[in-house]
Specification:
This protein has five helices and 43 strands. The chain is globular, with a radius of gyration of 27 Å. The protein is mainly β and about 700 residues long.
Length: about 700
Amino acid sequence: MTQDMKQTITLLSIALGAISGHAQTEAPDSLSGQELQEIVIEAPKVIRKADMDVYHPSKSAVENSKNGMQLLNNLMIPSLNVSEALGSIQAAGQSVQIRINGRESTIDQVRALLPETIKRVEWIDNPGLRYGGANYVLNFIVSNPTVGGSFQGQARPALNQAWGFYMADAKFNVGRSQWEVYASCKLTEDIKIYRDYNETFTYPDGTSITRRETPRGGCLDNTLPYYFASYNYIKPDTTVFVAQFTNQQHSGNKTEYNGIMSYSNGDNDILLTERYGDKGNYPTLSLYLQQNFPRKQMLVVDLSASMYFGRSWSDYMEQLPNADSYLTDIHTNIKDRNQAYAIEADYIKNWRNSRFTTGVSYTANRNRSEYENLDGSIFHQRQDKVYFFAEYFHRFGKWSATAGMGMQYTDFLFKESDQGNHSWSPRPQATITYSLNQNHNFRLNFTSWQSAPSLSQTNIVPQQLDGFQWRVGNQNLKTANSYMLTFRYGFNLPRVSSSFGVRAFTSPNAITPLLYWKDDKLITSYENSRGLQNLSFFLAPQIEIIPNWLMASGYLQYRMERMRGTGYELHNNAWSGNASIQLMHWGFVLSGQYVRAQRDLWGEKISWGEDINIIDISYNWKSWQFSAGIIMPFGKYDQGSKSMSKWNSNEQHMRLDMRMPYVSISYNVQWGRQKRGVQKLVNADAKTDASSAGGR
């Protein structure tokens, strides 16, 4: 065959592939750039489909990445707050469900991905019913690797504190089988912290007492080893089998505050020590089977089992200087032995312009908590959930619609008191999308989900928190319902892609804390409140300032909230967001990031996470990447909360020296010929719960 004939056949194959992709989707599923001598085929950086936005990694993004997390950071998806240094992924202050080829995964498993194998990234801000009530879904589509094995490693130590991240991953293939082993450790040891804490207690008779805490130090430990091993068997287009074992260790999670307390009634110079933490293991085993049938039919079954063996504890002590005894001496120790089991089965049928999905899942939680500080008192909780759903998607011209209904049955039983409750909760969902063309679309989405009470919220064993406060759970809590309506307009312009919209949310019976006095004790319990409502306006642009060199992206949100519960109605208006800028050239990547955390109103408290800024520079050379950066080069670290209860008003700020310079070395090597990646579409969620031993 002549060289000219080979070029002609190659060009014809590309053209036919593009035509075929257009027939199956509303936008071509092409690579971001393919070059054939004088012919270049380009696709937008983001393709706006009826139910998702699709991002294709550019050549420079892949070349400047050594793992999947770095590639995601280089994509600069505007709605996402991605911190490769901190190992976090969030969107609008909410959690993001991570999936790889449809299979629910972890951030560590994203790190283990080879950037060269990531074909595209799907961003779903209106997840369907089969995603189990997720706020957002990020799905990595991984194509066939071209090697038979790979090894990745990374080390990122801080230069001034015992903080960092370390990981190693290896993949091996034999025939249709693939084995993978992964291990990582997030190191946080003896980080110096302190807090500012002032609060006022108001009694039912109107009298009050204020206490102020002057910090005198503290420390934070939160080292988290994590590892997994998996086996995959894949017969292309027919069968996929996955077996995976993971274990997350809390090797010593501890927070300690030391301070000097003074009271408005004249008591001064009281030495305070408060510390709390947990330690344990979360082993999980999952089995997955996917079987394809003729006429575009598929059956997917997933089983999962997890356990938690560990303990949580808290100590609260008040003491006068030079005194041998304590004014207040409280110790709580809870030993957990909890189990969770889940099975899910989904059936999927595709036609040319439509899709039908239906499924059922069952989840069982069995929790056993032993209170060692209360003469070994034991508390049992049983929780069962059954979930059914059916969903239909259809595309007609420039319009598409998805409609579905889920139904969740939840049952609780508390063995010692023989109390419990059960409920049926409907979960309707619908989406309408109008695509003017590939670069402009409008989407209206309605979704709903349920939140079951947690173990700590239903635990009726009294826990003393300090000299004033106690916590007691409520076994009469009911599953809470949430509803959200979102309108979004997305568009692509030369060098700019963006989306903006409005989101309305309500949870009419949200489970929230309830404070009340009983004798001289301030009790924190829980209730099904009168509801939370909020309205958000958001803008998420991505701007290519200098093509292939300089890019910026960000997310800006303004939210208005109202929270109502027993005896209160509160309001909160706040803005939040993130901004990133990135310069790539000659193998160097210079990036900067700023994050303003969302201020969340829940119950009678406003809480906020970390306001963070990071500067990082990296250089890629062959299989190596070398980088250096600094966390919090500007400003002062602040994480905290503000309580507005009429019985207890307080404000707390956690401070630490977060100005941490770090260096990072990444390495990956590939060899041989590797097999096809796993195509897991559903995930049976069996997550064990854990007790909480207190802390104010």
